[in-house]
């Protein structure tokens, strides 16, 4: 029982250290924050802090894992699903990523601002995570283009566009403000899918005959307007 209480208390202290370190990194930058600053913020002595973490690099590595690597793993798992189509995969990925950005906006913004100061090993892990996310989303878009779900686009360029839209949530969304995060996630997910479908929101033509039918429909609309 005592060991369980000790384990629980240690977990709570470690989480508080992480929260306070993240705040300090955001306020002063990673390079401008030292180990003593973190100890003072948590109410521990510097020697006591070493019982929980070995360095501020360890805290930064946890931040990178939470923001970049965990996201990359979740997105890769969604992209690999065989029970849903590309449109549903993209909806899920965009909605999930937008929620992460909304719920952890301060940590994401901190990571972006600190990229130039990241230690080499942590920077490499961060970059690997970013590449993995881009690869997974581009793969989903390429799958959708291949089966006619999406119109013909460059999958990598389209994936970068989707990421730009979703990552921006961390800069404009404010908890408790006018925007409901769930509604934001759903709307961005639908926008991403609609932007990759045909002009009327339908799937892209699967054959030359389908493409001609679309052209004829457009011409009919134009004749009615004239």
Automatic annotation (TrEMBL):
<keyword id="KW-0678">Repressor</keyword>
<protein>
    <submittedName>
        <fullName>TetR/AcrR family transcriptional regulator</fullName>
    </submittedName>
</protein>
<dbReference type="Pfam" id="PF00440">
    <property type="entry name" value="TetR_N"/>
</dbReference>
<dbReference type="InterPro" id="IPR009057">
    <property type="entry name" value="Homeodomain-like_sf"/>
</dbReference>
<dbReference type="Pfam" id="PF17932">
    <property type="entry name" value="TetR_C_24"/>
</dbReference>
<dbReference type="GO" id="GO:0000976">
    <property type="term" value="F:transcription cis-regulatory region binding"/>
</dbReference>
<feature type="domain" description="HTH tetR-type">
    <location>
        <begin position="11"/>
        <end position="71"/>
    </location>
</feature>
<dbReference type="InterPro" id="IPR001647">
    <property type="entry name" value="HTH_TetR"/>
</dbReference>
<dbReference type="GO" id="GO:0003700">
    <property type="term" value="F:DNA-binding transcription factor activity"/>
</dbReference>
<dbReference type="InterPro" id="IPR041490">
    <property type="entry name" value="KstR2_TetR_C"/>
</dbReference>
<feature type="DNA-binding region" description="H-T-H motif">
    <location>
        <begin position="34"/>
        <end position="53"/>
    </location>
</feature>
<keyword id="KW-0805">Transcription regulation</keyword>
<dbReference type="InterPro" id="IPR050109">
    <property type="entry name" value="HTH-type_TetR-like_transc_reg"/>
</dbReference>
<dbReference type="InterPro" id="IPR036271">
    <property type="entry name" value="Tet_transcr_reg_TetR-rel_C_sf"/>
</dbReference>
<keyword id="KW-0804">Transcription</keyword>
<keyword id="KW-0238">DNA-binding</keyword>
């Amino acid at each position: 029982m005592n060991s369980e209480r000790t384990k629980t208390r240690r977990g709570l202290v470690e989480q508080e250290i992480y929260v306070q370190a993240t705040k300090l990194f955001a306020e002063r930058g990673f390079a401008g924050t030292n180990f003593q600053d973190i100890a003072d913020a948590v109410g521990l002595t510097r020697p006591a802090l070493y019982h929980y973490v070995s360095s501020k690099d360890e805290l930064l590595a946890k931040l990178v894992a939470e923001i970049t690597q965990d996201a990359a793993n979740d997105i890769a798992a969604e992209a690999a699903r065989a029970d849903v189509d590309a449109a549903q995969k993209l909806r899920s990925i965009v909605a999930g990523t937008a929620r992460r950005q909304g719920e952890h906006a301060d940590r994401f913004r901190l990571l972006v601002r600190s990229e130039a100061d990241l230690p080499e090993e942590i920077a490499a892990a961060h970059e690997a995570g970013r590449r993995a996310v881009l690869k997974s989303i581009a793969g989903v878009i390429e799958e959708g283009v291949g089966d006619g779900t999406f119109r013909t686009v460059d999958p990598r360029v389209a994936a970068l566009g989707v990421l730009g839209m979703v990552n921006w949530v961390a800069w404009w969304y404010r908890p408790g403000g006018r925007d409901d995060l769930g509604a934001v996630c759903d709307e961005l997910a639908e926008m991403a899918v609609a932007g990759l479908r045909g002009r009327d929101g339908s799937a892209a033509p699967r054959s030359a005959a389908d493409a001609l039918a679309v052209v004829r429909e457009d011409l009919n609309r134009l004749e009615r307007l004239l």
